[in-house]
């Protein structure tokens, strides 16, 4: 009889796993803490790569649906200096391998592709344990429990499944993002809109500061500008800011960018929402575990890293590869999990190493890239 797969977490990784299992005729149930798909804004734009995220969508048989939500023109990239000097300008000529989509729309495609009832909303896992017979029990906050032969933790950074496999817990990476949103930018924030351009923007801080301080921004669907301010500061520094006082928090973050070109600081000062603090956490590079029968992890639960544009892609790749491994070994779950993890561990260690390097030396990497012939019109102003 086919093993029923119990998945914790309806993020992109867990849903891709459920979908590729479904395509291969294997039943699964996904337990998700949030009350409904609409509980929370699903975050910004994601570039989905032809070497991992898109391969997962192919395995999920969802490429047509994926193409229908691609935001045209958003692979355009600008790099500018803190004073507004344009360092690099790359248009989207339609040949790039990293089309951009809204995370919420991608998640909806996956949800729509699953049989009704696959996702059980409002099921927050409070704990997990291994039973004497080797199966696993999952306890939910409402007091209910399920017992399963095959449990997959796709429940992100603070996974409740991970303790069955490893003692590792995420630690602060020493940097945080502060996110802002500027809506209807063409009419309401035209200077900021010109500064961001058609797709993605990176703004470099002067000199040595550039590695731990930069601003990124995306032009999302509906002319929304979504900016990410990156600051290498301890958690205590952010804790001293009252993020419930939107005006004061905005002013405090903007003060870090005193002297920068006003078209850049407008991405902070003109925000239409309260600034959102996102501390970056990570698991040790090379996080792995010994095989425990009937349970495994994927995505951030397995290899949380500072963001470098790969995390969601990797979570989807993990989900697809785990499903394909289970489909390839329908009568031998341990062989499936062993083959999945043998590929997962080195892949995630390499990805985490790259993510840490990018986050520790973002400015230098961009400058090196520019010095290798990608420099554009240096003397132009950004807006
Ligand atoms: C600021 C920022 C920007 C990023 N930008 C990018 C980017 O541009 N491109 C990219 O590829 N990646 C990006 N990432 C990384 C990416 O968001 C993650 O790597 C990716 O979402 C991981 O997917 P996942 O399915 O493993 O986990 P998640 O997306 O975290 O999904 C986990 C799911 O499990 C649920 N859950 C959690 N706990 C429980 C529980 N106890 N019980 C039941 N359900 C639970 C959650 O509600 C959630 O739905 C970014 C990350 C950050 C912080």
TrEMBL record:
Monomer. It is an enzyme of class 1 (oxidoreductase). Coiled coil: none annotated. FAD binds at residues 47, 103, 300. Keywords: Cytoplasm, FAD, Flavoprotein, Monooxygenase, NADP, Nucleotide-binding, Oxidoreductase. Its cofactor is FAD. It comes from Streptomyces prunicolor. This is Flavin-dependent monooxygenase. It catalyses: a tetracycline + NADPH + O2 + H(+) = an 11a-hydroxytetracycline + NADP(+) + H2O. Its EC number is 1.14.13.-. Pfam families: FAD_binding_3. Consists of an N-terminal FAD-binding domain with a Rossman fold and a C-terminal substrate-binding domain. The keyword NADP applies. An FAD-requiring monooxygenase active on some tetracycline antibiotic derivatives, which leads to their inactivation. Hydroxylates carbon 11a of tetracycline and some analogs. The keyword Ligase does not apply. It is found in: Cytoplasm.
């Amino acid at each position: 009889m086919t093993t029923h797969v119990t998945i914790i977490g309806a993020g992109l990784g867990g849903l891709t796993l459920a979908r590729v299992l479904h395509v291969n005729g294997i039943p699964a149930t996904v337990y998700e803490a949030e009350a409904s798909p609409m509980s929370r804004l699903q975050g910004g734009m994601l570039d989905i790569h032809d070497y991992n995220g898109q391969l997962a969508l192919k395995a999920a048989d969802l490429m047509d649906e994926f193409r229908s939500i691609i935001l045209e023109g958003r692979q355009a990239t600008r790099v500018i200096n803190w004073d507004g000097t344009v360092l690099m300008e790359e248009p989207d000529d339609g040949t790039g391998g990293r089309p951009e989509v809204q995370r919420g729309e991608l998640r909806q495609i996956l949800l729509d592709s699953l049989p009704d009832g696959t996702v059980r909303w409002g099921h927050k896992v409070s704990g997990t344990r291994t039973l004497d017979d080797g199966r696993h029990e999952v306890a939910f906050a409402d007091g209910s429990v399920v017992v399963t032969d095959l449990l997959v933790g796709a429940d992100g950074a603070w996974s409740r499944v991970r303790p069955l496999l490893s003692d590792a817990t995420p630690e602060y990476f020493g940097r945080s993002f502060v996110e802002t949103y500027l809506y209807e930018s063409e009419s309401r924030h035209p200077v900021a809109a010109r500064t961001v351009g058609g797709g993605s923007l990176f703004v470099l801080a002067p000199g040595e500061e550039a590695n731990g301080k930069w601003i990124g921004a995306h032009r999302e669907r509906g002319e929304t500008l979504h900016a990410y301010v990156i600051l290498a500061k301890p958690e205590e520094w952010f804790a001293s800011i009252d993020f419930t006082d939107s005006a004061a928090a905005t002013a405090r973050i903007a003060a870090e960018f005193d002297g920068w070109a006003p078209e850049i600081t407008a991405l902070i000062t003109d925000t239409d929402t309260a600034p959102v603090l996102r501390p970056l956490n990570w698991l040790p590079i090379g996080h792995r575990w010994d095989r425990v029968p009937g349970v495994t992890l994927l995505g951030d639960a397995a290899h949380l890293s500072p963001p470098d544009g790969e995390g969601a892609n990797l979570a989807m790749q993990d989900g697809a590869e785990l499903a394909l491994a289970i489909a390839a070994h329908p009568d031998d779950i341990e062989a499936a999990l062993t083959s999945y993890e043998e590929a997962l561990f080195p892949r995630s260690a390499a990805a985490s190493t790259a993510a840490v390097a990018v986050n520790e030396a973002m400015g230098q990497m961009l400058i090196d890239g520019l010095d290798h012939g990608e420099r554009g019109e240096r003397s132009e102003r950004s807006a």
